# Entry
Amino acid sequence: MKSKFRHIALLGKYHLNSGSGTKPSSRQTLESIAQFLHTQGCEVILEHDTAANSGLSGYPVMNIEEIGKSCDLAIVVGGDGTMLGYARQLAPHNVPLMGVNQGRLGFITDIALSEVERTLEAMLGGAYEEDRRALMRAKVWRDGHCVFNALALNDVVVNRGATSGMLEVRVAVDGRFVANQRADGLIIATPTGSTAYSLSVGGPLLHPSLPAWVMAPIAPHTLSNRPIVLADTGEVTIDLVAGRDASANFDMQSLASLLIGDRITVKRSNYHARFLHPRGWSYYDTLRQKLHWNEGVA
# Structure
């Protein structure tokens, strides 16, 4: 079957062995996939850090910017965290991504290692479902100046310090005051992020097609302070009123330290991450499998 994709980038986590003796190393997996893609008539490009840290050689090497300009597909080997990082970087370039799961949950990296060649062969031939996920653009403002600017695919989280007490934040949506909240923190999550940190604090699951966010407090002082679903067409502003050693986290991969008076703004980004799933993929199947629904049901 001829591949619909000609120039394919390989990106991944880099550990030389799994430590358990039961799972192949990332280098072995990357090398196996690269060789398979070559048999399908594809040109394989290694992402710079992936090549440097895995020790894999024999293929052209490019940085993310070059991959964005030159490749028509990216295959990410790792877990959801690895996919999140690369999806954010490639979203401005509109490059679609496939995920080979070497992690645990695998909500967005859903090609099983045990079936990687069979699944990839079908997907490269066009047997896939495309799933577009909106990103958030978040900024930290201090004294009227933007001091931090980041994209987030999962969530923006304002957190208290490890040894400090509760935070107090003032929240507004589209300039309209919502509430002053005292809590350990506050999460603004996309539908993609609704299965991550937001879920662990009692937030609802949002279907990826919904133009919405979840705003969920972390251990709120007032128990009636519950998660709320917001339209993603507006702007959420979070002002830090009180609290020491606070920080703003973006997908738990970028971090900005906060001072009293700082403002975090969150808006929908113009960029989308493009995930390609195996044909027949269903969001509900993913939830059922990853969250272990129906277990124990006869």
Remarks:
- The domain at 7-126 is CATH 3.40.50.10330 (Rossmann fold).
